[in-house]
Amino acid sequence: MLGNKVWEGTGRTTGNRVLPGDDFRYVKLEISFEGMGQVLGTDASNMGTLTVFERVPGQMFAQGQGILMTADGQSAIWNGQGVGHPTGEGMGVSFRYGVAFQADPNGSLAALNGSFFVGEYESAADGSWTDALWEWK
């Protein structure tokens, strides 16, 4: 069951690289991004890097890691995986994903520890993105 929304943000892709795949039939994409939003009701920045590849035509798999940082110096490391598809608008993609966090157990982001979260990530051809994340109870 979905619980409370814990993150909502917007941002931009900051870098793309094409990497060799594990065999000759595909390549991997490395996509780095950063943005701003709110985590648990507090203004925060989010940055990370995703490694993406196409499993079968039209289906993409991504895994990534990054960090959320609040204006008051709190942070939470995240790791996640998801599946998605190209939107047909340039490099635009639509992903659904799961993520887990590691935060200071005594800090303002401690509520992110020990839970799993599911999210929606949408990017446009111009590199802009929107993202939202809910606790999965």
Task: Give a description of the structure.
This protein has 137 residues and is mainly β. It has one domain: Porin (Beta Barrel), CATH 2.40.160.20. The protein is 0% helix and 72% strand. It has strands spanning 2-20, 27-39, 42-56, 59-70, 75-86, 93-103, 116-123, 128-136. Strands 1-2-3-4-5-6-7-8 form an eight-stranded antiparallel beta barrel. Strand 1 and strand 2 form a beta hairpin. The protein is globular, with a radius of gyration of 15 Å.
In brief, what are we looking at here?
Helices cover 0% and strands 72% of the residues.
Give the low-confidence spans: none
Range of strand content: over 45%
Give the ordered list of helices and strands: EEEEEEEE
Instruction: Going across the biggest sheet, name each strand in turn.
Output: 1-2-3-4-5-6-7-8
Mean pLDDT over all positions: 94
What level of helicity do the residues show?
under 10%
Q: Give the distance, in angstroms, between the N- and C-terminal Cα atoms.
A: 5 Å
Which assembly state applies to the chains in this document?
single chain
CATH architecture: Beta Barrel
**Total domains:** 1
- What structural class do you assign from the helix and strand content? mainly beta
